[in-house]
Amino acid sequence: MSDFARRHHDMGGREAGPVEQGGHDYSMWEKRIDAIRRLLSDDKRRMMTVDELRRGIEELGAKAYDEMSYYERWAASTTNLLIEKGVITIDELGRKMEEVEARWTAEQETKE
Questions:
Q1: Is residue 19 part of a domain?
Q2: For residues 53 and 75, is the Cβ–Cβ distance under 8 A?
Q3: E strand or H helix at 104
């Protein structure tokens, strides 16, 4: 396959340097993203598939793909899929993000 036909995320056969073989501790937010993905794709809900998740990750664009971590890509793809399917709206997401930011800011101020 020529490089012209490759999409940005397709690294198969390219020199990419050493691969980290060891495990690492997952942060709480990474565990939550994994749990959300599992719940949304389970036999009860069937709200998204692994193929849809992968499509969403591949559509992030080169800059976002390169700058995001593995689980950040999952979070972005999952969010975009939920918006695409009408499960949440952009307004609902924005309001929730403002609520979480306000709560976090208040927590930081009480620590000072």
A1: no
A2: no
A3: helix 90-111
**Distant-in-sequence, close-in-space partners of 33: CB < 8 Å, separation ≥ 6:** 71, 74, 75, 78
Domain harbouring 41, CATH code: 1.10.472.20
Q: In this predicted structure, what is the pLDDT of residue 5?
A: 62
Residue 89, pLDDT score: 98
CA 110/CA 99 separation, integer angstroms: 17
Is residue 10 domain-resident?
no
**Helices (runs of H) and strands (runs of E) counted in the chain:** 5, 0
Instruction: Using the structure block, give the residue that is written with the tokens 């559509």.
Output: 59
Six token digits for residue 15? 């020199």
Strands (DSSP E) contained in 4-86 are none
- pLDDT of the residue at 22: 78
pLDDT for res 16: 66
pLDDT 10s digits, 41-91: 999 999 999 999 999 999 998 899 889 999 999 999 999 999 999 999 999
Closest CA to 60 of 43, 100, 69, 18: 69
In a domain, 13, yes or no: no
